């Protein structure tokens, strides 16, 4: 069974047979909550479309998991208006920072006469802004803890895929780096976006609004292609030629993941065990919801 996940606030979200969330609350107990069940979909078998479908599922449960983890870890319930506002702000930040701002910065360079060069420069500016953003948020203590849980998630998945027993002592011997990480996906997405948008720019002259619209419309296409490349890389992870494609994502994972402590590894283990249908066993520290 293939599993994956993401770090959330004081916890880990795992996706396997089920979508399971494990979070440590204010009292120090691990709360496990099952958010859904992954059922077969025709879209998951169609090349390119399956990438967009997988991205939608990951984003849907990712946002839901973040909201749930915020409530469990803080002990305070969020209003629906707060959840919607945070989602709108996050989407606005993503569009503004990684789509609109690169266009505005590139406009200052007076490259409009050569759309190919314009798109190429804009793509590298977008990549630079992304790397700068990841570095900047990594300086915050709360984000550093999330990155530790991200490392715990990878270590547990690596142990599981190696057939290792899921215990803290065993899991801590595994790497915090994983080829199917969303960080790898983001880097592949950004690099492919540079290639595809530059190719479009070589043939189609554009103004500001056409550029903005084309970037938005090409998002699902680039996402679908990026997913296929990521699957290819994971399948042939020892191929020396393909290493050139996933090396940037691997290097960035050294920033987006950190070594977790035993308590964080325990949270990730319980999330994975519930996601694959196993029963965890941490006694009094475990609380199951839903």
Total number of helices? 9
Instruction: Tell me the overall shape.
Output: globular
Q: How would you classify the quaternary structure?
A: single chain
Characterize the biggest β-sheet: 5 strands, mixed
Residues in helix, %: 55-70%
Percent strand: 5-15%
Task: Compile the SSE list and pairings.
Layout: E1 4-8, E2 11-15, E3 18-24, E4 30-37, H1 49-74, H2 80-107, H3 115-137, H4 141-161, H5 168-171, H6 182-201, H7 208-235, H8 243-256, H9 262-275, E5 286-289
Parallel strand pairs: 4-5
Antiparallel strand pairs: 1-2, 2-3, 3-4
What does this structure look like?
The protein is of the alpha+beta class. The protein has one domain (4-289). The protein contains 9 helices and 5 strands; from the N terminus they run ββββαααααααααβ. The chain has helices at 49-74, 80-107, 115-137, 141-161, 168-171, 182-201, 208-235, 243-256, 262-275, and strands at residues 4-8, 11-15, 18-24, 30-37, 286-289. A 5-stranded mixed beta sheet has the order 1-2-3-4-5, with helices on both faces. Strand 1 (4-8) and strand 2 (11-15) form a beta hairpin. The protein is globular, with a radius of gyration of 20 Å. Mean pLDDT is 87; it is low at 281-285.
């Amino acid at each position: 069974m293939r599993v994956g996940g993401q770090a959330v606030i004081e916890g880990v979200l795992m996706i396997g047979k089920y979508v399971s969330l494990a979070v440590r609350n204010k009292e120090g107990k691990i709360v496990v909550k099952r958010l859904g069940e992954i059922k077969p979909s025709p879209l998951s078998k169609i090349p390119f479309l399956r990438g967009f479908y997988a991205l939608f599922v990951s984003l849907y449960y990712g946002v839901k998991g973040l909201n749930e983890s915020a409530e469990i870890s803080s002990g305070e319930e969020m209003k629906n208006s707060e959840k919607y506002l945070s989602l709108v702000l996050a989407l606005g930040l993503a569009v503004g920072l990684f789509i609109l701002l690169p266009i505005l910065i590139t406009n200052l360079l007076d490259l409009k006469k050569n759309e190919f060069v314009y798109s190429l420069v804009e793509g590298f500016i977008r990549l630079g802004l992304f790397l700068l953003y990841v570095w900047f948020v990594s300086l915050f203590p709360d984000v550093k803890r999330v990155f530790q849980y991200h490392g715990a998630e990878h270590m547990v998945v690596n142990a599981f895929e190696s057939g290792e027993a899921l215990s803290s002592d065993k899991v801590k011997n595994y790497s915090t780096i994983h080829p199917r990480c969303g960080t790898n996906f983001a880097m592949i997405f950004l690099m492919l976006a540079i290639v595809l948008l530059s190719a479009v720019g070589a043939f189609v002259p554009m103004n500001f609004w056409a550029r903005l619209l084309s970037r938005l419309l090409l998002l699902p296409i680039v996402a679908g292609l990026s997913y296929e490349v990521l699957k290819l890389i994971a399948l042939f992870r020892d191929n020396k030629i393909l290493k050139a494609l996933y090396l940037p994502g691997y290097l960035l994972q050294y920033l987006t993941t950190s070594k977790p402590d035993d308590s964080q590894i325990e949270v990730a283990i319980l999330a994975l065990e519930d996601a694959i249908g196993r029963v965890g066993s941490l006694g009094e520290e475990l609380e199951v919801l839903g």
